[in-house]
Amino acid sequence: MTTQPDHQDAAPARPVTLHELRTALSRYGLPGDREAFERDLAAALDASPIGDFAAVAEVAATYRHRLTLRTDEQAMASLASPIGGQRWAPAADVFARVRAAGGDR
Fold first, then answer.
1. CA–centroid distance for 56 within its chain
2. What three-state secondary structure class fits 85?
3. pLDDT tens digits along 51-87
4. What is the pTM of this model?
5. CB atoms within 10 A of CB 59
6. In angstroms, what CA-CA distances link 12 with 21, 29, 36, 37, 54?
7. DSSP string, 45-63
């Protein structure tokens, strides 16, 4: 049995090294984040000219930003807030309203 990330822990410190980023992605990332990071990192590394690792740095920055959004309470609250007055409604609620309005005939 595999251990699932515990998202109840306190937010991690911002990763500084690739090792810290890998560890944080394994612990706090969404399922598949660590594997996707490794694929993207390898692709950027293979495509980079010797001595120019800008693409590698960009991949690391992208995943660090995703991790920051995922573990920051204010960022998650901002993503969950209504946009243009619209609130997100679970599909079950929408279907229940349609049935109540007689739309299930």
1. 19
2. coil
3. 999 999 999 999 999 988 888 788 777 777 766 666 6
4. 0.63
5. 21
6. 10, 11, 20, 18, 25
7. HHHSPTT--HHHHHHHHHH
